[in-house]
Amino acid sequence: MRFIALAVILCAGYFCSTAFAHPRGDWTKLIITRHWPQTFCSVEQCTTNLSYWTLHGLWPNTGMRCNTSWHFNVSLIEDLIPEMEKYWPDLLAPTSPKFWQYEWTKHGTCAAKADSLNSQHKYFSKALELNLKYDLNSVLKNNNIVPSEEYYTLDQVETAITGFFGVKSKIQCVHSGKVQTLGQIELCVDRDFQLIDCEKSSKEIWSNDIPAVLVSSQSDLSVCDHSVPVYYPPVPSRS
C-alpha cells in the first residue's frame, strides 16, 4: 500500500511526466554526425579526394542495436544510393554497403522507435535530408573556415557554427602533441528534427562513437581543446 501511495504522489508531479513520456530506451534527440574525410583517412591510412564533410551517422542518444533481427536490405533504399554514395560514403570500401548496414543495425533500429523513422528508407532519407538542411560545409566556408595549412582556434570554428545555427555543436579532434586535427562535428535535433544544443560530456554513450569495424583508433578522437591550435587538413595535391 505504501508503494502504491508513493507512486500516486510521484505521478502527480514531474517524475511521472518525464519517466513515462519517454520510456527507458526511447531517444529524445538525434545526433547528426559528420566527419572530415582527410582526417579519417589520416587515421585509417586510406585515400580520398573528397573535399566536403560527409555523414558518419544519425544517432539516437539512447539505445544501440535495438532490433538485431531487423536486417539491413540495400534494395529498400535503392533510389537513395546515388545520394548515399556522395554524402554518406564508406571511405574504406566505397563500393560496399557494409557501413550503411552497420549504421542501420546499431543506430537505425533504435531511431525506428519513432514513427517518422520506422523504416530503413525513412531513416536513411531523413539523414540525407538533415545533412543538406543543416549544411555544415557552406557554414564553415562562408565563415572563412576552410581546409588550410594554417591553424585555427577552436573558438573560430565554434563561433562559425553557433553563429549560424544558433545552437551548440560538439566538435571533436584527433590530438597529437601541440596540434589537434579537426575530425568530427555533431549537431543535434529533437524528435521534431529541430536543432537543439548538443551535450559535450564525454560520458554520453554516443561520444567518440566510431564503429570499431571502420576505425581502429577510437581513442584518437575526442572533444577539441580550446587551448590547442586546430588543423583543418586540405586534400593532398596530386603529384
Helix content: 25-40%
Main beta sheet strand tally, sense and closure:
8 strands, mixed
Please name the fourth-level CATH homologous superfamily.
Ribonuclease T2-like
Element-by-element helix/strand order: HHEHEHHHHEHEEEEE
- Mean pLDDT equals 85
Low-confidence stretches: 1-24, 201-219
| Quaternary structure type | single chain
How much strand content do the residues show?
Answer: 15-25%
**DSSP helical segment count:** 8
Rg over CA atoms, rounded to whole Å, is 19 Å
Shape: globular
Report the structural category. Answer: alpha+beta
State the domain count: 1
CATH class category: Alpha Beta
DSSP summary, beta strand count = 8
> And the CATH topology?
Ribonuclease Rh, Chain A
Distance between the termini: 79 Å
CATH architecture: Alpha-Beta Complex
Offer a concise description of the structure.
One of its GO terms (biological process) is RNA catabolic process. This protein is α+β, with helices and mostly antiparallel strands and 239 residues long.
Q: Would you give an account of this structure?
A:
By secondary structure, this protein is an alpha+beta fold. It has a single domain, classed as Ribonuclease Rh, Chain A (Alpha-Beta Complex). It is 33% helix and 18% strand. It contains eight helices and eight strands; from the N terminus they run ααβαβααααβαβββββ. Strands 1, 2, 3, 4, 5, 6, 7 and 8 form an eight-stranded mixed β-sheet that branches. β4 (170-176) and β5 (179-189) form a beta hairpin. The N and C termini lie far apart (79 Å).
